[in-house]
Amino acid sequence: MNKIKLITAAFGAIIAGSSVHAAPFMAVGSSAELFVTAKATLEFNDNLTLGSDYVAPGATQPANPVRDDTVVRFAPGLSFEFGKNALVSGKFAYVETITRHSDNDDLDSELSDVSFNIQHKDEKSTTSAKASYRQMNQNTVDLRSPTLSGREVFNAGVNHEMEVTAKTSLGFGFNHTNTSYKKATFIDQLSTSIPVSAFYELTPKVDLSFNAQYREVDTDRAASNSDDWTYTVGARGDFTPKLSGSFKVGVVDRSIQAGGGRTSLALSSNFSYAYSPKTSFTFSAGNDFNTTGTGNAQENLDFAVGVSSKVSPDLTISSRVSVRELDNFTKPSDTFYAGSLSAEYVVNAYWQLRGAFNYQENQGGTAGSDFDNKVFSFSALLRY
C-alpha cells in the first residue's frame, strides 16, 4: 500500500496546486508554443481484466478471474504546437503514463504515447499527415488476458483533398497500422488501407460523396489474412442550421485467405445536433469488418448516442451510451454495451478537474465470455 499512498499524496498536491495561478506557456518563435501537460487519476475498478467467475469443466478456477483494485495513474507530457492560423500547422505530443495498482502490482506499467500531426491548407486543397507510436496494456471486449493485453501500435497515414472544379473535389489517402503483441498467444497484424473519394457540391453547405477503399490485413497466421473492398455513397456538411456531420452507406466485401469470406453492409455515420447554445447531441452508427488479436474475423455493427451540456461557464456534464453487435465468423456472436457519465470543471486556463463513471457489459455466445465492469475515476489535468 505504500506506493499507493505515495502517489495519492502527489495526486492531492496537484489538486491543491490548482488554485494557484499557473505559469504562462513558452512561446517558441512567433507561431509555435510548447505546453507542459500532466494528468493525475484516481480510479476504482471492479474488473480490471474484464474477467468472469466461470470455471470450465475439468478446471479448478476461472481462466480469467475477476480482479478489482484501486488504481493510480500519473501521465506527464509535452505538447509542441506550431503554425496556428498559418498555411502549415501541426502538433508533436509525448505522454508517459505511469500506472500503479494497490493489490495487483503484476498489472503495473509505464507506457509511452508519441504522436505527430501536420496539415497544409490553402483555398483549393488540404493535405494532412499523421504518425504515432503507442504502448497499450488493456483488455477489450474482443481481446482479453488474465494479465492484460500488452501491445505496441504504430500508425502512419496521409490524406489529400483538392478542388477539381468549382463544384467538385477529389480526395485520396493511405493509412498503415502495425500492431505487435507482447504475448505469443496473440497474433501480430499489419493493416493497410487506401481510400479514394469524389465530392460534388450539392449546396454551399452540403457535399455528396462517392467512395471506394481497399484494405489489406496481414497477420502472423497466414490463414487469417484478408482483403476488403468497400464501395459507398454519402454526404457531409451542415444539413440544417443545427444538424451537421457525415454518412456513408454501401457494400463491403471481405475475402479471407483460408476461405469463408463475406459481403455485407458498409456503414459509417457521425452527426452532431445543437439542441441549444449550451446542449448538443451526437449520434453515430457503423458496420464494418475487423480482425481480432487472435486472428478471428468479425463483423461489427454499432450504434451510439451522446449528450453534452454546459451547465455553467465552467462546468460541463456529458453522457454516452452505445451498443455493439460482434458477429464472429467462426463462433457465436457477442453483444457489448457501454455507457459513461462525466463532469468536467474548468478551474482556470490551465487546470481542469474531471469525474467519470464508466460501465461495460458483454453478453457472449460462448461459455465464460460474459462480463461486466464498473469504473469510477477522478482526474486533475494541467496544461500550460
TrEMBL record:
The keyword Signal applies. Keywords: Signal. Residues 1-22 form the signal peptide. The keyword Signal applies. InterPro entries: BBP2_2. Pfam families: BBP2_2. This is Outer membrane beta-barrel protein. The lineage of its organism: Bacteria, Pseudomonadati, Verrucomicrobiota, Opitutia, Opitutales.
